[in-house]
């Protein structure tokens, strides 16, 4: 496997990005015990939970890859158990991002990229590089990190998204860097993290964290309808005018892929929220 560094002068398009834009909706992981009471069918073997979840949703964000190094056989197994149109977003190893000097992350980045993720084939979605809440934006060091992210793996283009969690990233300097390297920025609705919807890549990545235990779908009807409208707007090349941003809504551009994940909050409600949003979008999930 030969990862190649991303040039600063070319967009980082995948085969999916070049096709018609897609709105994908999912959750984080699939092995959450409370889901065995309100999502998975009673008595479903744990070994079949991924197969079931992937036929109710259109994507899953994998959190385990942040904490542990998986084997190629695991990625191959995930590929084989899920429908042809399913996508996995992967959280990259914390050893690449939880460090004082990001410019020194090259070895950790390579180790993660070469851990077997290419076994997912076309089901490999964006790679999420999540930073600790205390990580402060330092332009030079952060650019050095972005320059280390590979553009391709085994001939397949990679897409990257950064999940920055410190207020210091809410600057024009950060936006300019992310755009220069064609890296998307996570939008989150969580109050505890910076929430800005300024677009920096050629796809949109949202992590929704405010689900409520007292609501059947985690989010109320109005909120789900609003997220459906925002997703359509993003996919069509626009930008919602009701989300916080540094620059205000962007001008209309090219259609883009959209990834929306329901994470945290009342996590037991995440599958219901994702399925409710898919229903509002009129998205039929592939089952084969």
What does this structure look like?
This protein has eleven helices and twelve strands. It is an alpha/beta fold. The strands form two sheets. Strands 9-8-5-4-3-2-12-11-10 form a nine-stranded parallel beta sheet. The protein is globular, with a radius of gyration of 18 Å. About 40% of the residues are buried.
Strand and helix layout:
Layout: E1 4-5, H1 15-18, E2 23-28, H2 35-38, H3 49-53, E3 59-62, H4 64-67, H5 72-81, E4 87-91, H6 94-97, H7 106-113, E5 124-130, H8 139-148, E6 150-153, E7 156-157, E8 160-163, H9 172-180, E9 184-185, E10 187-188, E11 203-208, H10 221-235, E12 257-262, H11 270-281
Parallel strand pairs: 2-3, 2-12, 3-4, 4-5, 5-8, 8-9, 10-11, 11-12
Antiparallel strand pairs: 1-6, 6-7
Helix pairs in contact: 8-9, 10-11
Keywords:
288 residues; alpha/beta; 9-stranded parallel β-sheet; 3-stranded antiparallel β-sheet; 12 strands; disordered N terminus
Quick recap of the structure?
With 288 residues, the chain is α/β, with parallel strands linked by helices.
Succession of helices and strands: EHEHHEHHEHHEHEEEHEEEHEH
The shape is globular
Give the class from helix and strand content and strand pairing.
alpha/beta
The rounded distance between the terminal residues' Cα atoms is 29 Å
Mean pLDDT score, rounded?
A: 92
Rg for CA atoms: 18 Å
Number of strands: 12
Helix content: 25-40%
């Amino acid at each position: 496997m030969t990862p190649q560094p991303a040039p600063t002068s070319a967009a980082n398009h995948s085969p999916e990005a070049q096709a018609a834009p897609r709105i994908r909706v999912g959750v984080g992981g699939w092995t959450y015990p409370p889901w065995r009471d309100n999502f998975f069918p009673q008595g479903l073997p744990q070994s079949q939970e991924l197969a079931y979840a992937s036929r109710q949703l259109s994507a899953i964000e994998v959190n385990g890859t942040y904490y542990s190094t998986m084997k190629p056989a695991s990625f191959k197994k995930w590929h084989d158990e899920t429908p042809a149109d399913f996508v996995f977003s992967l959280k990259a190893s914390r050893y690449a991002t939880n460090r004082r000097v990001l410019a020194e992350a090259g070895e950790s980045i390579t180790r993660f990229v070469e851990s077997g993720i290419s076994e997912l084939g076309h089901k490999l979605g964006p790679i999420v590089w999540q930073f600790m809440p205390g990580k402060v934006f330092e332009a030079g060091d952060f650019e050095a990190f972005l320059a280390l992210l590979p553009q391709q793996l085994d001939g397949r283009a990679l897409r990257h998204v950064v999940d920055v969690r410190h207020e210091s990233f809410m600057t024009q300097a950060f936006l300019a860097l992310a755009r220069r390297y064609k890296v998307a920025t996570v939008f989150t609705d969580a109050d505890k993290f910076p929430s800005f919807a300024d677009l920096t890549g050629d796809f949109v990545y949202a992590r929704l964290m405010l689900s409520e235990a007292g609501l059947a779908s985690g989010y109320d009807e109005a909120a789900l309808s609003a997220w459906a409208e925002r997703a359509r707007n993003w996919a069509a090349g626009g930008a919602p005018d009701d989300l916080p941003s540094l620059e205000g809504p962007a001008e209309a551009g090219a259609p883009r892929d959209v990834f929306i994940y329901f994470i945290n909050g009342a996590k037991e409600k995440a599958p219901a929220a994702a399925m409710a949003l898919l229903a509002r979008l009129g998205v039929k999930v592939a089952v084969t």
